Amino acid sequence: MKLFSGSKRQKRILCVIIAAIIFLAIIASLWGVAVYSDIGFIAKWRAIYIETAMSTMNHQWLATAFIPQSVIDEVMDERNAVLEAGLVEETKLPQATAAPTPEPEAEESEVQALCRIFPDIDPDTVPEDMIKGEAEKFKRKDMESVGVLTLCGDAVWAIDAVNGILIVSVSGDGYAGKLAIVNDSSKVFLGVSQLTESGQKITELCEAYDAVLGVNASGFDDPEGMGLGAKEDAQGLVISEGVILQDTLTDGYFQIGGYDAENNFRIGYGLNISELRDAAQFYPAIILNGENVTTGDSYGFGIQPRTVIGQTADKRTLLLVIDGRQVGYSVGTTVVECAAVLMRYGCYNALCMDGGSSSAMAYDGELITSPSAHMENGRYIPNAWLVGKS
Prior knowledge:
Elements: H1 8-36, H2 40-54, H3 61-64, H4 69-86, H5 110-117, E1 139-140, E2 155-160, E3 165-172, E4 175-182, E5 188-192, H6 202-208, E6 211-216, E7 238-240, E8 243-246, E9 255-260, E10 265-268, E11 276-282, E12 285-288, E13 291-292, E14 306-312, E15 317-322, H7 335-344, E16 347-352, E17 361-363, E18 366-367, E19 383-388
Antiparallel strand pairs: 1-2, 2-3, 3-4, 4-15, 5-19, 6-17, 6-19, 7-8, 7-11, 9-10, 9-11, 12-13, 12-16, 14-15, 14-16, 17-18
């Protein structure tokens, strides 16, 4: 007995229909597992995917188009609870004071002198013939081919003894970026765009203030990713060189991060802003009073390009920029990983700044990270943390 007596063409059509039904059933089953499964691995990456999409202004559809709103709400509610728990009224001041540059030892070598200025450098990796002159005047970038490492094992990208800046290349699973260590926090300040209709790129802000180094700071209104980063569009408090340019934002989870007159970098929603010389707002705080406060796999913020400002107990400033959204080079990272990087270098307090396509670092007149913005030298931004020249 024949189950189907139609023509060969009809049999082929029936086979295609059956195959399509089976394929759709498999897809539906996989979608159900991906969206609703409680299996640890799947739940982890589902949450990170949702956090990554929902922490952007223009790519939230990557979550909302495929995942039920109830599942998204559950993930975001957990993130908001983490943020609420992480709010701090004011960080403590570190007990340590700014570390003076040690006096040179008798008959010290040039390598010893350089490591006295930059104690993070591993002296065993510094070639004896590298300096060829006074260590206090040594300045060189693009150093990765030389093989100089920090004591943490990261490659040194630039040494600038003239300005007291060490720049390190940092990398990990799927990410790459730069960490700048600034010996003298009195030279770090917030510079704002000098234009009225738009912000300026990080290289332009460095040039406007004659700064040797800079990273982006405040977030800003950015409709459809086309915002021009005008200084009045910055989100939250802006204090630049003692002048309050914009009031504190009290909604949401924004924290203030700023330097006082003694060059302490302080964090908290309740800071007395009259005591701050330079400040901006963003979130989350990831290191408080010497403690890494991030939890879980991503602390609720997914994987993105990142910018973080921090300070060690001896008042050296740490400026971290992680590139992202560039498959094959760097997709970005979590704030948990950012905190881990900074803790390796003795960070005492650290606050995330605006990330995403705004994340950028410039040094000595050029962009030295790779922003995800499809613009030469990155996006227009309202303000930046800058380091003045010596």
